[in-house]
Amino acid sequence: MGGVNSPVRxxxxxxxxxxxxxxxxxxxxxxxxxxxxxxxxxxxWGASILxxxxxxxxxxxxxxxxxxxxxxxATKYEVELAEMIRKHFPSMQLMRFVSxxxxxxxxxxxxxxxxxxxxxxxxxxxxxxxxxxxxxVRGGSGLATFSIADSAGVSESVAxxxxxxxxxxxxxxxxxxxxxxxxxxxxxVEPVAGNxxxxxxxxxxxxxxxxxxxxxxxxxxxxxVITGFRVSLGGAQALFGVTPDITCLGKVIGGxxxxxxxxxxxxxxxxxxxxxxxYQAGTLSGNPIAVAAGISTLKLLSNSTYNRLExxxxxxxxGFKGASEESxxxxxxxxxxxxxxxxxxxxxxxxxxxxxxxxxxxxxYSIFFGAMIDRGIYLPPSPFETIFVSTAHSDRDIExxxxxxxxxxxxxxKVL
Length: 416
Ligand code: HOZ
Hints:
416 residues; alpha/beta; Aspartate Aminotransferase, domain 1; Aspartate Aminotransferase, domain 2; seven-stranded mixed sheet; 14 helices; globular
């Protein structure tokens, strides 16, 4: 429908009539059905931290496939993956595997409501937590791309349980809590926002959320679907030293296949069936092929992976900066590890929330995207998404990308 199975892929967000159709991918490269090669900075929306089709992951997936594609029953490999995750995310004392980030955040909200016996959830303008009804209120990602403030089809009564605060603004969270005292079940946040470009938390923001959640008796949920195993081995919670009550993971823990997880404090998670009364289930939950991809991916990650990602991502950011300055285009870059955001903005020195994201020039991004893809560089087809770098990106890839960016920034400057 619309030629795609997920809206942002359509390229309509960057004023192109048709998307490219991918035939295969290897390492840092994507190939389309017309045999064009691209350096890939979407990386399956952040999942492919090792690049595409890493031979060690592919081998593990093949081996698992030979044992059976799915059983709808428990396997020892799910336990192995859970233990690997808990080693780096000790806050996830108990966890449950599901099939997508949407399921993880939706279930986390349900558990939080059951635990607190309250109904309202505070989310942040421009943060995206998948497409469960209650989260389709002022979301980033495709909602921002297509200017859908609140999705049609979500009943008003459901939406009324979602309160929206401003990212990096603790006062707006306090105001939301004051409006509904004793009613907030949870505060959910992307600890580094990656669905409105890349917006890092300002000093004290995450710690402030921890304090406010504790003071009002709500749970703090970190949606680390993007940041988990992406910004560090222990995700954003390790990087910023703030521990949530519930964490949602996805993307990297499946190495490109469909698995996600939610987990947290034992006293909270033991409410989930069959231990407790919160129901949540799925035939594909903990699917053995996805679990095998996850285990083999996580085995390949270590602190040195993140040092390498930092080095190569810094090189990309600095190259982009130099290229944009030379062209005269006024562009801001915000980066946390291998997540990079590009904002065409000639007024601000930093972008801290969605209101500021909204002041950026979309037309410039579309021109830049078009010029880059014509030069074989595949960026996210929306200014509200994140550029991801993988361990497969080489120095040569970055140099080629920066060269293309120099020409593409000039195209933007020329048109405006
Ligand atoms: N939720 C993804 C962007 N943050 C988009 C997924 C897709 O279109 O494949």
